[in-house]
Amino acid sequence: MSITAERKKELINEFAVSNNDTGSVEVQVSVLTERIHNLTAHVKDRKKDFSSTRGLIKLVGKRRRLLNYLKDKAVDRYNSLIAKLGLKR
To answer: Does the keyword field hold Transit peptide (predicted)?
Structure first.
């Protein structure tokens, strides 16, 4: 369900705004998106796993709040991030 350390490093390198960047909104959203994809597959297989479903809903809400923040601060960065991740907005 969780992502591996190697995959997380790949995402950080791909979406980092500057060197040693691990906390920018782009990096956080990309890591959350990867976790959401993994957890969605898990929940589809195990429909009665309500605690994982709740965790999935919390992750989606956190990603939504980060994207709304980015949309308010920098629309061009928001649009490029949505395009790179393939999200519907």
So the answer is: no
